[in-house]
Specification:
The structure is a single chain. The protein is α/β, with parallel strands linked by helices. Among the domains are: 44 residues; 132 residues, no CATH class; 48 residues, no CATH class; 40 residues, no CATH class. 45% of the residues lie in helices and 6% in strands. A hairpin with a 2-residue loop joins β2 and β3. The two termini are 51 Å apart.
Amino acid sequence: MDARKETISPRQLKILKMDTLHLNQYLNEAMLENPVIELEENLTGYTDEDMRARKAEWLESNDFEEGLGYFDKEMELPALEQPDYAMLNVGSDETLEQHLTKQIGVLQLPERVRSAAIYLAGCLDENGYLLAQAQDLAKEGYCESEFEEALSVLQNLEPLGVGATSLKECLCLQLDEDDQTARRLLDEIDLTGSADVHQLAEQFGQSEQQIEQAMLRIRQLNPKPGSQYSSHDRSSYILPDVMMIKFVNEYYVALSDFSLPQIRISEDYRNLLARSRGEEHREEREYLEDKIADAQLLEQEVTLRGNLLVEVTKELIKLQEPFFRFGPRYMKLLPIQELAEAVHLPVELVSAVLKHKYLQSPFGVYPMKFFVAREHQPQQEGMEAIRTQLSAIVRTEQPDEPYTDEQLAQLLAQDGIFATEELVERLREELNIPDSEHRIFYDPHQACCEEEDSCGCEDEHCSCGHDHCGCEDEHCSCGHDHC
C-alpha cells in the first residue's frame, strides 16, 4: 500500500523531531512570543513573574492601538520594569542551541530568516561547528539566499565562532574585521605546525613583532566555541517520551506527556477580538486573528506529533514482538522501511518521529532508533556488522583486562551501534567468544577454529582473518589442516 500523503510544514517537522523535554521548552518559548497562548502548567526555569514581565515588555515593543495588552488580573502593566534578559536563566543548564535560539528570538528578522536561523542552531555539533548545508535547508523549503542570510545571523551570535565548517573559518569569525594581519596569517600558516616568523614578516612587509602579536591573538581564540555549553548528556537522566505497559498478552502504549503543558487560547484575547469591530480596529483585529490562528495550528501540530508517536510505537511493538515478550536476546534489527510501510508513512517522516525519542518498556528505557536498522541496511547485514565490530573490539582488548558485555555494549555505542548487553552476550556466544572471566589471555583467533571444520574448509578466508589454505600458516593456533 502506498504511503499516506502527509503535508508537513518545516515547523511541524521540527516538532516531530523534538523529545518531550525540548518540546516543553519550545512551548514555553512560543507562549512568550505569542501573547494569546496560555499553558496550563509551567515547568521551565521561568517563574510566573518572569513570564508576565516578558510578555509585558514584548507588548510594549509593538506599536498597536491603546487597549491591546496582556491581560492578567494580578498585574499592573505600568508598574512593571523592563526585564533583564541576560539574567532570566542564570545558573541554568543551558545548551548551545538554547543559548543561540534565545538570541535569535530578540532580533528583528524576517520570519523565514528567523526560522531558518533557529533550524541551523539545531544543526551544530557539540563544539559549535555547522553540520547542515544549503541543500539540507532546501529540503525544508528554504532558498539559498535564506540559507546564507540565516547563516550570517548565526555566525554573528555569541559565542563567536559558531556556525563555521572548518577550524580556520571558526577562528576567522572570532577576529576583528580590521585585523587583516591575523586574517592573512590564517590563510598562510599551518595551524597544526610551526610557522617561520621571519619569512612571514618579509612576505607581509611587517616586523617580526607584528607577526608574533598577530599569532598570539590567533592562539587566544577558541577552536571549540560550543564546548562551554551543556550537551544535556542523556545518560545522566532520561525522560521517556512514550511508555509501553504490558497486561498479560496485551500491550498499552501511552505518551509520557505528563510534563507537557496544555495549550489554551486566552479568553481575554478572544473577548478583545470580539470587541475589535469597525475600521478603526482593523489592525488590532488582523493581528489577533493571526496570533490566534498560529496558536491553534501549534496545538494541532503538537497533537499530530503525539498521535504519530503512539501509532509508530504500536506498530514497532508488533514488529518487535519477540523482544517485548521474551526479552532483549530475541530482538531483531528491523529495517526502517518495513516499519514505514506498516504505518503507511514515508521513511523520512518515520525517522523524524523516532529521532531523539525514548521508549519505556518492561525491560528498561531504550532509544527508539535502537529497534530499527539504518535506511537501506538489510537485517542480516546489520547483525553481521555488529558481529564484525564485536570481534574487532575483542581482538584489540588488553589480554589481562578483557571487556565485560556491558563495556562491549558501551564501546559499540561509541561507534554508533546500539546493542543491549543481552544482545552482545548472544552474539558473543555465536562467535564462540568466552565471557570476560574466561577470556583472560584468550586468543581471539582461536574462536573460529575451536571445532575442526568451523571454518567451513571451503572458504579460503575464515572470519578470523587467517589464510587457512596455507596449511602451515604460522599464525593459526588450532593446528588443523584446513585444506
